[in-house]
Amino acid sequence: MSKYVLTVAALAGGLLLLTVRGSAAERAVPVPVPTVDVKPGKGEQVAVLAGGCFWGMEAVFQSVKGVHSVTSGYAGGTAQTATYAQVSTEKTGHAEAVRIAYDPKKVSYGTLLRIYFSVAHDPTQLNRQYPDTGPSYRSAIFPQNDEQRSVAAAYIAQLTKAKAFPKPIVTKLETGTFYPAEAYHQDFFWRNPTYPYIVRYDKPKVAAFRNAYPLLVN
User: Fold this and answer.
1) What are the phi and psi torsion angles at 40 (to 5°)?
2) From 3.40.50.150, 3.90.550.10, 3.30.1060.10, 1.10.3210.10, which CATH number describes the 3-216 domain?
3) Of the residues 53, 64, 112, 119, which is catalytic?
4) First vs last Cα of the chain: how many Å apart?
5) Which of 162, 120, 160 has the alpha carbon at shortest distance from 141?
6) φ, ψ of residue 19 in degrees (nearest 5)
7) Is the CB of residue 1 less than 8 Å from the CB of residue 136?
8) Which residues, in sequence order, are bridge partners of residue 180?
9) Catalytic site residue 53?
10) Which parts of the chain fold into alpha helices (H)?
11) Half-sphere exposure at residue 3, Cβ-oriented, CA atoms within 13 angstroms
12) What is the pLDDT along the chain (218 residues), one digit of tens a residue?
């Protein structure tokens, strides 16, 4: 959740009618297909990714074919501090993250990473994401096993070598348990389509995904 949202929501008048279109930074960035990928196993698999406010991340990955569910939450800190009130102090070590449960026969881990780097967030912003600042908005991947870690590291190296972005990629590979966020954060994009932050920052991401990857849209 964005601190910017809390500020906007507290103001009166025309500011609540904000409907500014997404910036150029919110369009899909052309990135190559990963040269290595996780081998599809049996049953459901899980990916945990952090890249700014989880509302938009959740909505993008909920739109992906083969994804069963997406949960907004926190990763990188402890269970005792996994609440929005505490995470927003920027002292818990948590990042706002999403847990993606998916069918590896329909969408691969590498494909999820491609969407993550291409459209779900800007991997060149350090400890921030657009108006949101602080380490809880950092770009981070939380591999769930050694194979995911290897694939993620290889893809970051591939994107760096290809100079896919004009600035260095700051995404880190981290460890940590995922904890679901409060109920009011779940499915926030879909339940609040006219919310100013959603309109300004998250709707352009979902639209960019649908335009850039039509074959992956569910």
Assistant:
1) -65, 125
2) 3.30.1060.10
3) 53
4) 25
5) 120
6) -140, 40
7) no
8) 73
9) yes
10) 3-10, 54-62, 84-87, 109-115, 146-162, 188-191, 196-197, 203-212
11) 16
12) 554 444 333 322 222 222 233 343 357 899 999 999 999 888 999 999 999 999 999 999 999 999 999 999 999 999 999 999 999 999 999 999 999 999 999 999 999 999 999 999 999 999 999 899 999 999 999 999 999 999 999 999 999 999 999 999 999 999 999 999 999 999 999 999 999 999 999 999 999 999 999 999 99
Q: State the pTM of this model.
A: 0.87
Length of the chain, in residues: 218
Task: Please choose, from the candidates 34, 41, 31, 72, the residue with its C-alpha nearest in 3D space to the C-alpha of residue 145.
Answer: 41
As a whole number of angstroms, the distance between CA 53 and CA 203 comes to 13
